[in-house]
Structures are given as C-alpha cells and as structure tokens.
Amino acid sequence: MRMGAHVDQEDPIAEARARGAVLSQFFLGDPQAWKGPKVAYPGGAEALRADAEAAGVALYVHAPYVLNLASTNNRIRIPSRQHLQKQLTAAAEIGAAGLIVHGGHVLATDDAAVGFDNWRKAIDGLSIDVPLLIENTAGGANAMARHLDRLAQLWDAISHSPNADKVGFCLDTCHAHAGGMELLGLVDRVRAITGRIDLVHANDSRDAFDSGADRHTNFGQGFCDPEGVAEVVATAGAPVVVETPGGVEGQRADLDWLASVAGSRD
Ligand SMILES: [Zn+2]
Known about the structure:
The chain is α/β, with parallel strands linked by helices. The protein is 40% helix and 14% strand. It is globular and about 45 Å long.
C-alpha cells in the first residue's frame, strides 16, 4: 500500500524519507491566503520534479483552503478559479500525481444547484494537466461534498463537462465521520457515485460523529471507528495520506498503525 503524510513544503522528499514513506502531500505557499503558488523547495519546481522522480517519491499538492469553486459570490468564485488554475499549472510543473481541493459550499440561503453548476463551469474552463481531486468536507449546512446525496449531484454536474475524466475524488475519513457518513461500507457507497477513489486522507477525528467539525488527530485518540478507517484504507485501492499532528514521530506511528490493520506498507 502506498502511503505518506501531509508535510512541510520545503523538502517533501526528505520528509517522506523521514517517515519511511513513498509519497508526500504539501501546500505550494500559504494555505490561508489568496497568494501563490510558490515552490519552497531549493532549486524550484524543476529540481523538485527531478529529485522526487529519482527518489521514487510521489508528490501530491493540496490547494489553499480559501478557494471555494461553488461560491455564488463573484468575488470569491472568480479568484478561486484563477488560483485553482495556477495551482494546477504549478502542480504539473513539479510532476505532481494530483491536486486536492475541497468541495466548497454555498450560503445557507443559496440554491445548492447553483453551486453544482458553478463547479461544472469551473471544470469546463480549466486546463487540467494533473488529476484534480475533489475532497469531501466535514462541515457546512450547504456543502457540495459533505453528504452522499450532494456528492451524487456534484458528480452528475461535473459529468457534463468535457474535462470530467480529469476529475477524481479524495475521501477523507475524519471529514466523513465528522460530516455524518458512516465509514463502514463507505468505499462502496462512494464508488457507486463517483466510480473512483483516487486518494484517501486517513485521519482520526477529535470530534463526534456528524459534529461538522474539521479537527484531525492521531489514530486511537479520536472518535473515528478504527474498523471503519481500516476498511476504507484497505478497500479504496488508492494511495493514502495521513494529515495528522505530531510531526515525523506522530505520523510514523499513524502510518505503522494503518499498515498493521490494512495490509503492508511500501
Ligand atoms: Zn483531508
């Protein structure tokens, strides 16, 4: 099983090695700002691409949290599209295996259908050279990818785009649990909708089922059903990223636990 962690962006190759991992996920710049992307690796994008390839480390980029492709507010939606394109271009330059972006949301008073259509229009207009992986989110009353019924509507909207085959899905176990989706059986239920799971974010949750809170923690310290996490990781058939605290030691322990419950670790 191919596993790794969300790490500091300066040297994702060294971070992977320190965890005994074959992949790394990181941000290109500040995840909370409308800036960037910026490659922090010494030597820049080309060096990162070449060095990662030589080291056999796959790279995943997580888009900034501020992007909301579904938004009905022009002043958020339009810069979100522009920044997503920049992130995709930069991810392609470093040879990334995928770019992960959250499903986003519309306002409580908005019609969710407008949000799904905004996603479809965004996908239509992007030039996509690395897989764009939409991730389920934990919170929000009017989220695009918190519950399965919404995921089905989102996927239906996207399927009408000529770029649909370049869009995949990232399943986060903390977000699923906190968002109110049972982990046991979830892989099958998601695949019935999306036809694919391209990446798993394996995290425990500091909060209760359906709390709507997005706070990750290390395995065994949260409220996620451990059997559910193990089943997701074992059956998704996708690479796994832990986005948990504790740095090298904390994440190594999480990766070891996943390997012990869900099969061997590369
Ligand atoms: Zn995640």
